[in-house]
Amino acid sequence: MKYSVLTLPLILLFIFSACGGDYRPMSIGAIDEIIVVMDSTQWSSETAMAIEETFGKGIETLPGYEPTYRLIFRDFRTNSELDDLRRYKNLIFAAPIDDNTNVASLIRAILSEDIENRVRQDESFAFPITDRWMRDQWVLILTSTDDEVLAEKIINSEKSLVGNLLEREFERRINEVYRRGEQVAINDSLWQNYGWKVRMQHDYNWTIREDNAAVFRRYLAENDRWILAWWQDDVDHIDFINDEWINATRDSLLQRYIQGDREGSYVTTEYRRSVITDQVNRDDRITGFETLGTWRMTNDFMGGPFVNFFFHDPETNRLFMIEYGQFAPSVSKRRFVRQFRAMGRTFESDSTWNRNDRPITFLQD
């Protein structure tokens, strides 16, 4: 059975401005941290376990264990404690709709009477709210008729619930990645010479330039990162694209362009761990596929996470691959993988592209 995830257009925000701006404080807390507000007597409930199994689930495609989000369970007894909680960036309020708890009372105060009735009739249960009390804030109300029913709905709606926050996180990661600077000249060169671009972080170096491939590297002793790009013209359809084709194509390109220091070593996919491909939701004409997994270095003891994208532009019949990889054995991978996923979503293709019309002019090193 499927359940709807409903936004709350009836919840109005009070904007502290006479001229249209929002002067409220910024929310606090880490981008990948969620404060889960539940009555402390329910922290071992089925609802709490369902939240752990969805938002706190281990990420299959990382080299080591890291949860999707770090969850912190909190309760409140006073208005002052509630005011403190309402400052956080990511918040989940969860309780059965008619419970006699402070959390349930708050949920009823937030929801309109019409929406409460929809909850009691099992029509809706999840209500994401943007910037409810602070700027850059994500709030999710989870409520239903009882604990068991609510837990079941959370489990059954994992993809849409977690996906809603992930999309918000990608927006935040874009700001995080490019706030220190962006190499606009590289973006412009890719667009003018090759008819595509992704936003380029401030400290990547363009190390390989070919007619239909490019590599960018960001060398740091403890956090080596790279971007491999490849593109092909005259691709009229993408019926051939499936998981096997994506991975075989990636491996072939990685063997050629991302090689190790030892002779004969190169990056390839680690198939003993999960490799997962999903379609990317975009608002334009382009069809996208995103693959997450881990890589290993042949003939060497190295490995790390990767994020791969294939994009097809039907207006120009062009196919593009952008892959982000990282070697950073001593740091958490979740943050950087989410940055890669956000960066890849900045991909654009020039719908007017004609390679015969464009003389190639490289950037000066």
- At the first level of CATH, the class of the largest domain is Alpha Beta
**Alpha-carbon Rg, integer:** 23 Å
Distance between the termini: 58 Å
- Named at the architecture level, the CATH assignment of the largest domain is 3-Layer(aba) Sandwich
Q: How many structural domains are formed by the residues?
A: 2
Beta-strand percentage range: 25-35%
Give the tags.
365 residues; alpha+beta; Protein Transport Mog1p, Chain A; 9 helices; disordered N terminus
Structure, described:
The chain has nine helices and 16 strands. By secondary structure, the chain is α+β, with helices and mostly antiparallel strands. It has two domains: about 170 residues; about 180 residues, Protein Transport Mog1p, Chain A. The strands form three sheets. Strands 8, 9, 10, 11, 12, 13, 14 and 15 form an eight-stranded antiparallel beta sheet that branches. A six-stranded mixed beta sheet has the order 1-5-6-4-2-3. A hairpin with a 5-residue loop joins strand 13 and strand 14. Helix 1 packs parallel to helix 5 and helix 6 packs across helix 9. The protein is elongated, with a radius of gyration of 23 Å.
